[in-house]
Design brief:
19 helices, mainly alpha
Length: about 425
Amino acid sequence: MFDKISDTLQKYLMPIANKISSNNILQSIKDAFLISLPFTMLGSIFLALVNLPFLNDLIGADAVASLQAFQAPLQNVCFNLITIIIVFGIGYSLGKRYELKPAFTAATAFICFMIATPIITIKDTNYYLIGNFGQTSIFTGLIIAVVSTLIYRTVIHKNWVIRMPESVPEMVTDSFNSLIPACISVLFFFIIMVIMSKTSYGTLNALIYAFVQTPITALAGNLVSFIFAGLLCNLFWFFGLHGNNLVYNSVLSPIFKSLSLQNLAAFNAGKAIPNLLSEEFAFYFGGFNGSFIAYPVLICIFVFFRKRKELKELGKVALIPGIFSIYEPLVFGMPLMLNPIYLIPMLLTPVIDTLIAVAFMATGLCGYCTGVSVPWTCPMIISGMITTNSIMGGVVQLVQIVVTTALWYVFMKVAIKAEDQKKKDLVTEGDNSNE
């Protein structure tokens, strides 16, 4: 029966997984967010340091205020310019994947985004508002970067380029070859900008925010959708596919990054944090991180099944990676992959973790994630405290570990008994054949 279910799931899931993993646009979006990661991480580290719990008691409120003001420019650069980084990243990565000149596609995407971004005039001087480059414009920048690169690619493929003699240096040739594709892309968004200025929305960003970003964010911020995404992520892992890349990094990352930046802006301003679900919640409380399976499985191996030599040897290999959220040694070495007994706990783990965290946060026992980001390899307990700016964040993760360890203990015990029975049956068959 299981084989039939497995074959059916592979039949319908594998094509989807292959399309996602080979889709140039989705992979470029993933690349862009990975490019932005070091900068958001840097800003998060400084923001966390100047907002440590009880810091007021240690150095005084005035000193804390001075530190926060001192590092404010760094916050502006790391968080409020994130869309520019994403635009550059998509333009570069998508151009490279389409075998274009990535430096020119990235620059074209950036200029197109700036053309579509409104300017304010104060005393005959034009200014860009830094807020227009933050979380409210992520989807606008993403769409513009993709469309501008597709226009650029179309023009190149139609051979609408200026050809230069072979004796001309390569960089000069590339510049002239890019002249027409870049100009057509920029003019396209210039026309869009002019048209939007005549509407009630005023800007392309306002239109996209109202009709695209807000509805998608609301849908993804729904608890049912979130749990379904966690189930799908681990289902892909069960078949040996990188669930995080297929479900989160390629599809959900822009949505939850936007929610995180909203939380971060509120936290920075001392206001109530608006979103329970966010990128940090997904990774450090919602099960989108290898730690949520690695920790309970490793605890079971070293505490409850330490006499099992094969598990103990595997545990030695998987321990250090597992502490830092890398659980591939368990997926492929135990293996969790394609093992019917482990499918249920793999699917239940993100559901249980999410419901535990929601219960604590919705009732006020633990604060929401502040938007402060930490490396995805940050060990549990520590990541919980930093991302919620409270000790209770670590307590929530501890409860999650205890509950899911009990879950995995039950199924690991079943799997071990099944394995032992299989060995006994093989011995019995061998004895009978000798007779």
